[in-house]
Amino acid sequence: MNFTEDQILELKSITPDLSMAQDGGYTYIRIDNLQLPDHCNPNVVNALLCPAQKDGYESSLFYSAQITGCPSRNWNRVNVRILEENWFAISWRVNPGLRLSEMLLIHLSALR
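User: That's the sequence. What structure does it adopt?
Assistant: Structure tokens below.
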């Protein structure tokens, strides 16, 4: 999956430490040192944004740790193995056709 340079630059303006990776036929955007809201524990994590439809979701945001201190959410995907690491994801739906930055921000809204 290819993304336009303007979408990547827009995403980097929110969180600059990005890289792309492939696993299992999916393209992931790895976000290192993603800052979460202050009430979250931990409040800095690594994340994987999967901007493609996977497991019945239009897009997914996987966290390197299960987040506490935020509203109670359904952590239905726990210890998902991607890129030789374990990840955690909230059951959170977003609309199709969003820009990468919009996807990220809507997924992060689950923590507010």
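Strands lie at 18-23, 26-35, 44-50, 60-63, 77-82, 85-89.
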